From TrEMBL:
Its EC number is 2.7.4.3. It comes from Bodo saltans. It is found in: Cytoplasm; Nucleus. It catalyses: AMP + ATP = 2 ADP; ATP + H2O = ADP + phosphate + H(+). Belongs to the adenylate kinase family. AK6 subfamily. The lineage of its organism: Eukaryota, Discoba, Euglenozoa, Kinetoplastea, Metakinetoplastina. This is Adenylate kinase isoenzyme 6 homolog.
Length: 176
């Protein structure tokens, strides 16, 4: 299978850990393209139905296949920052850097409440963050030289992560 012409970055984490904000800033600072996968799923209708009770889109295997086919050429071009709350169904070869954002319980509670999530959806996400579901998923799906885990509670931490990723991206670009 082919590898990307330039490194790609995946920003992942529980909803409201700050993935989209971080991906936007990294793309801007490093002059990369940003793909917000949740938005692509909505716009291109890569989902089968909407579960009112769970307040979530149901993505079947066929939707996932169509999404991966849609993304493949963009990923092969390289220089893309992708953000999504899950990471295990992407091909491993797509990403040379995987950043898992982590947020403290108090901060995440505030952000999820501010987003207008119902209690059940908020609590489900809080629990996933406390257990570290996405971090575990990333560590079992990508190599240890690819995954980095970063706290993202405030703007200082965000700025530090952008600097960290910039340096890592330059290193990986030189080794390609
Ligand atoms: N490092 C940060 N410091 C303070 N607020 C942040 C930080 N990162 C994100 N936020 C805020 O948290 C909320 C969720 O961020 P967002 O990027 O939409 O998260 P996600 O894409 O992971 O769901 C937004 O209101 C955003 O402005
Ligand atoms: Mg987002």
């Amino acid at each position: 299978m082919a590898s990307p012409r330039a490194p790609n970055i995946l920003i992942t984490g529980t909803p409201a850990t700050g993935k989209t904000s971080m991906a936007q800033l990294i793309a801007q600072e490093l002059q990369l393209k940003h793909i917000e996968v949740g938005k692509v799923i909505k716009e291109e209708r890569f989902y089968t139905s909407f579960d009112e009770e769970l307040d979530t889109r149901i993505i079947e295997e066929d939707d996932e296949d169509r999404l991966l086919d849609f993304l493949e050429p963009k990923m092969m071009e390289g220089g893309v920052v992708v953000d999504y709350h899950s990471c295990e169904f992407f091909p491993e070869r797509w990403f040379q850097i995987v950043v898992v954002l982590r947020t403290s319980t108090e901060v995440l509670f505030e952000r999820l409440s501010g987003r207008g999530y119902g209690d059940a959806k908020r609590d489900e996400n809080m629990e996933a963050e406390i257990i570290g579901v996405v971090e575990e998923e990333a560590r079992s799906s990508y190599g240890e030289d690819v995954v980095v885990c970063r706290e993202n509670n405030n703007l200082d931490e965000m700025a530090a992560t952008i600097d960290f990723v910039r340096e890592l991206y330059e290193q990986k670009s030189n080794h390609q």
